[in-house]
Amino acid sequence: MPTGTDRQKAGKKKYRQLAAQKTVAPSRPESTNGQPDRTSHLCRINKPCSLSVPPAPMPAIILTTINARYIHASLGLRWLHANLGELQSQAQVQEYCLTDHTADIAEQILQSAPRVVGIGVYIWNAVQVRQLVRILKRVAPQTVVVLGGPEVSHQPFRVDFSEADYLVQGEGEHSFSELCQALLTGSLPTQRIIPAGSVDVDTLILPYELYTEEDLAHRLIYVEASRGCPFCCEFCLSSIDHRVRPFETDRFLDALDRLWQRGARTFKFVDRTFNANPATAGRILDFFLAQKPPFHAHFEVIPDHFPESIKERLTRFPAGTLQLEVGIQTLHPQTAANINRRLDFHRIRENLDFLEQKTAAHLHVDLIVGLPGESLKQFGDNLNTLVNLTGGEIQIGILKKLSGTAINRHDQVHGMVYSPEPPYEILSNNQISFNQMQAMKRLARFWDLVYNSGNFRRTAPLLWQDGDVFNGFYDFSRWLFLQTRATWQIGLPRLCELLFGYLVEVRGMDAREVANSLAADVLTIQGRSLPQTVLTHVTKLPATRRTLGESLTRRQTRHLSA
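The structure assignment produced for this chain is given below.
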């Protein structure tokens, strides 16, 4: 059995070998009309979206998962693949999307008759993975199915995965490799649940060479400079591991540079606390500041920890290159105390004001509905405050009860009732009734369509002209659902009509004022048009139009100018 030191030496040697390989910069596949060819994105046409052709000989190990969308390349699968050791050549990564039919996924996986299938399980794909496992074990019972990921790493299990052969709990890079070695040599482990725990990150082979040219050209490139989180927020799985385990900075930056040289330009860091170590954060920011735009880097940051060295660097990023996800969750002190989230609220306000006024970063600020002890009024006060502090996105999330977290300790005291099905969202508590919670879930979706989308930067504030953002939008949200009886598949033209109808017919605003505001929002983008019911009232058209550019960052681009 290799020791941690052995693995560390082997990992660094293997990484140097991979980094020494020359890789040409990717070019986007072109169609006959000169536009990027999307036919290879199979999940977009409702077919399995395996990203590689099965090699010869057929792989003994298939690593797979079902992503929420095509653009989300699975970092977890690539970590497993990179650390399979001598088995790496016998393994293949296949990725699918939620839009793919489960039987089609099973058919594609079994085409190569693998001996082992490893599947990553998350809250968004747990139900579909359960269906996939059942099909695999009925059609090919000799195939060993191994599950890993958050949904099988913590008990209680709320989705029935009893037909899977093995469950790997925790960070599985080494444990999965050892399990595959045993399975392929006929040494079947007697223990079905394999505890993996946390790994020494210095023993891992970095996976970034395994991103394909297709990934680099068309997908978000996920990277991580550290694992773990120093905070103890009771709703979050990251709070289970209180140690922040950084990857060696030079080694990580070398891998980042390799990605850049190969053509990667859209990076999303999965670190929970990117700015926890200012020295490391500063070096990573310096890497991007030394590059020539266009590029886009996304970081999740601690809201009350921005030393001057970090602030100064943030001011130098050009517009459109930097996105910061700021986890607020609540601004109510007692609610924060209830969930063991200790934050300096005065400093948070100062830092948000700095980011808004002194930087060009696109902000993505998080709030959670349904936290124990927080009323709708208190949530509304949080939203009103954040809208006044930042013009960025405010992501309204619904509290989820994740196995392994400590949020369940509030169930009795605060009357917390959750859905038993993924994603385990709260249904009601002693502050918010079931009907109110349903209304808030719809509000969160409509807020994303109207406010966060950036499509209505001028028109959205007309919904709260008295300054009460929450109640103004709450009223609109309830009216909107009565008109549509849906929260999905509401296209931009239809949404324009609905906004116009509400503001003019319900709120009594001047039709020309509303139409001109919608024209300024919508018609500034090339290729867009207004519904005729709105266009007939327009008296002023925007002087110029612009394009949104790269599809991966169009949402952020819509926020650049109001």
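Interim note for the steering committee: Residues 12-55 have pLDDT under 50 and may be disordered. The two ends are 60 Å apart (CA to CA).
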